[in-house]
Amino acid sequence: MLPAQRLKGRLLSCYVVSCISFKGHDSLLCISRLLELFIAYEEDSNVKLVIVKGKGRAFCAGGDLAAVIRDINEGTWRIGARLCGLQFTLNYILATYRKPQVSILNGIVMGGGAGASIHGRFRVATENSIFAMPETALGFFPDVGASYFLSRLPGFFGEYLGLTGTRLDGAEMLVCGLATHFVPSERLSFLEEALCKVDSSDPAIISAVINEYSKQPYLKEQSAYHRLKVIDRCFSRRTVEEIISALEREALNEKDDWISKTIQSLKRASPTSLKISLRSIRQGRLQGVGQCLVREYRIACHFLQGKLSKDPFEGFRAILLDKDKSPKWEPSKLELVSDNMVDSYFSMMDDEGWEDLKLPARSNLPAYAIAKL
């Protein structure tokens, strides 16, 4: 995360925050600074809106998993827990922000990058956008409030994205609601200049400005969104086992490479992560964003502590370190992951000094500051 800059212009009403992937222990400093900036901008009457964009080819690809795993191996898992607590607090501030946030998603948007943008009021995708929540393949689960925003996508598309880690392009982000606008990358500089001349926090006015530079993108024929009926039939099932069985039945009736790839993605992922992720997203359908973040913090702390599962360590080894892409999950099969085992991740931790996430009070919010999805 780089320092925010007030853009030069006749109306100094806009701040721009540039994000990069969070690296090492700098993550704590970056997220702390970002939180500090957003709180300050919200209280500054001269600031009408905040633009968040990437530095380089990505918007933000998320946190530095290697540093978190290293801390855990050194017996300092609480550093990772503190990082999650700060990050989830930032997510909550963004989800309830009183001023419009315009996120320009011109590149990779994954993990923590999704949390820093999807909770904001405006999300501008481009032809370079790539969104994914790939955590189940790494032995983790979609966090940063993902159980809130994934559960509010059309039908059961959120369950599909969260369990399989499927990548979406900008057009797919727009059609499913993860993005609010699509602007070709060559128009972004003009959009940014126009936004910084808007002396208003009215979402309707800001949306109209973005609309001037927007276009309707082409949704590729092989897009998963064209399979929404199949996704709804299969991913609406109660359990992960039933979802896979439903997909296998679909494969018998229809020769579609997409179905077989979806089944393969699920079978490669951590069984424990799949079951936790499905339950988390299902609970998210019935909860507010604050409740989702508090629950996700509990789950994340259990994973970070490492007493219930070593799958995140194995996923990191197989996917990012050794790169053999053959993780040895434990338990290795879905049927070996009991409901009681899953329950443990959703319970308070029995660890001295540990507390549930305490989110800041957010009162007297305008209607446009909540329920952005």
Automatic annotation (TrEMBL):
Q: Which UniProt keywords apply?
A: Hydrolase
Q: What is its EC number?
A: 3.1.2.4
As for what it does, the entry says: Hydrolyzes 3-hydroxyisobutyryl-CoA (HIBYL-CoA), a saline catabolite. Has high activity toward isobutyryl-CoA. Could be an isobutyryl-CoA dehydrogenase that functions in valine catabolism.
**Which organism does this sequence originate in?**
Quercus lobata (Valley oak)
Which residue ranges does UniProt annotate as crossing the membrane?
Answer: none
Which Pfam families does the record cross-reference, listed alphabetically? ECH_2
The question of whether Hydrolase is a record keyword is answered with: yes
Q: Which GO terms describe its molecular function?
A: 3-hydroxyisobutyryl-CoA hydrolase activity
Q: Which family does it belong to?
A: Belongs to the enoyl-CoA hydratase/isomerase family.
- Pathway(s) the chain acts in: Amino-acid degradation; L-valine degradation
Entry's PANTHER family? 3-HYDROXYISOBUTYRYL-COA HYDROLASE, MITOCHONDRIAL, 3-HYDROXYISOBUTYRYL-COA HYDROLASE-RELATED
Catalysed reactions, as listed in the record: 3-hydroxy-2-methylpropanoyl-CoA + H2O = 3-hydroxy-2-methylpropanoate + CoA + H(+)
The protein's name in its UniProt record = 3-hydroxyisobutyryl-CoA hydrolase
Domain Enoyl-CoA hydratase/isomerase: from-to ranges: 31-346
Coiled-coil segments, which residues? none
Q: Which GO terms describe its biological process?
A: L-valine catabolic process
At the top level, the lineage of the source is Eukaryota
